[in-house]
């Protein structure tokens, strides 16, 4: 939580409000900045706007670095949406562990209320988003038929 006070201070600046107003009409592209300043900027803007944050990176290593940085920036809930970058020659089944991690993130995402989603940051790789995602209905506890039977 070392950078959470920095993002809170930046969120109170008039410039942040001006940037948020402009973001309603156009997109913001941060290029040429190192990971940490980008993380501070996007965390500040997303938290000030009360919006969740999704960071998509090119590699698993870069995603791990982003996740570590975002954890220091005061996000209430920080998830890493896993991907498989393992060798097909490995002895264990990496797909089962990866699938379980993905399902946990998706279930938490569906279960969170709108208020809690504002404090949510998810980091993943572009490779993890390539396969088709399952529909959200199976993760919705109010839509599950077995859940209704226990109420």
Provide key terms for this protein.
151 residues; globular
Write a structural description.
- With 151 residues, the chain is mainly alpha-helical.
- Helices cover 48% and strands 10% of the residues.
- It contains seven helices and three strands.
- Strands 1-3-2 form a three-stranded parallel sheet, covered by helices on one side.
- Helix 1 crosses helix 3, helix 2 packs across helix 3 and helix 3 packs across helix 4.
- It is globular.
- The termini are far apart.
Measured as a percent range, the helix fraction is 40-55%
Q: Provide the spatial order of strands within the biggest beta sheet.
A: 1-3-2
Query: How far from one another are the termini?
Result: 39 Å
Give me the number of helical elements: 7
- Overall mean pLDDT stands at 79
Largest sheet: 3 strands, parallel
Low-pLDDT windows of residues: none
Shape: globular
Number of domains: 1
Series of H and E elements? HHHEHEHHEH
**How many whole angstroms does the radius of gyration measure?**
18 Å
Helical/strand content category: mainly alpha
Strand % is 5-15%
Number of strands: 3
How would you summarize the topology of this molecule?
Elements: H1 4-11, H2 14-23, H3 35-49, E1 53-57, H4 60-71, E2 77-80, H5 94-111, H6 114-117, E3 120-125, H7 145-149
Parallel strand pairs: 1-3, 2-3
Helix pairs in contact: 1-3, 2-3, 3-4
């Amino acid at each position: 939580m070392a950078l959470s006070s920095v993002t809170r201070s930046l969120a109170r600046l008039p410039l942040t409000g001006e940037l948020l107003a402009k973001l309603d009409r156009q997109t913001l592209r941060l290029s040429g900045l190192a990971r940490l300043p980008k993380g501070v900027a996007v965390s500040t803007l997303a938290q000030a706007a009360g919006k969740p944050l999704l960071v998509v990176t090119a590699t698993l290593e870069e995603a791990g670095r982003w996740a570590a940085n975002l954890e220091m920036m005061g996000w209430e809930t920080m998830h890493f949406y896993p991907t498989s970058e393992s060798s097909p020659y490995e002895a264990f089944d990496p797909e089962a562990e990866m699938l379980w991690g993905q399902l946990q993130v998706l279930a938490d995402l569906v279960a969170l209320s709108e208020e809690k989603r504002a404090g949510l940051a998810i980091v993943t790789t572009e490779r993890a988003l390539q396969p088709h995602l399952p529909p959200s209905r199976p993760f919705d506890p109010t839509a599950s038929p077995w859940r209704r039977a226990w109420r």
